[in-house]
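Sanity check

After download, print the first record. It should look like this:
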Amino acid sequence: MSVFLERQKVRKRRAWARSFKVAERVLLSLAIVLGGLALLYGAYLLVFLGPTFLVRDVIVEGSLTHTGTDGIIEKSGIKKGENLFAVDVEKVHRNLKEDSWISRAAVRRKLPHSIWRYVEEYSPQAVIQRDGKLKYIDYEGNVFKSVEPSDPKTFPVIGGVDDKMLPEAQAILSAYSGSLFGRTWGISELNFDEVKGYTIFTEKGPIEILLGHDAYASRLDLLGRWQGTIGRRGGRITYILANEDKRLVVGYRGTTSDQQT
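Expected structure tokens:
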């Protein structure tokens, strides 16, 4: 055989070898891709169609005074038995925030089969009139909800106060509610008048207490210190003038007593 023919055979064998190696690499790559796809499909079946990640527990944490656990579960729209990863947590969060009582909410998935929600409600301090309606206001000054017929009516009413005066009115309300006199007599209304200043109407009695325009802390302290003396006087108290420093004028039914320090 000639040298030329021998070289042609060698070239053909080498070409076949190269083609085989290329085909081998292509088949191996295809096998890896198909294997990966199979694994992904298996993971999809396990996660989204299998029983492992179905919602079994709906956990609600937080201080729930007005909404209640059942109401939170119903409002979130989550159903037991649906896939954990199919739950739209952002939509659940929006549904919770639609409740006027809820100030803050968080929603999380907890593997393998739980949805966790944390809810904080507004804590009303008083009721105030805004836009022609009575609305709740919390301790941070947030006016957050209109008072509905089914809502509790046990909160004091703040009247005659605009938005700029609201922090001062809330501070007076907090100071009075925490004072000895306030804990004893309670409060139903705190009202501001440009001429008279702030006036408190107590829950018990009732008693009308004129505080005036300033020095509220010292005047509330004076009320507490003279509470025992005022109560021992006898007769029903109708009003207390506490708008002067170190002086209380107490009106009883039919009489008046002037207490000074």
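If your output differs, re-run the checksum step. Summary of this record's structure: The chain has a mean pLDDT of 83.
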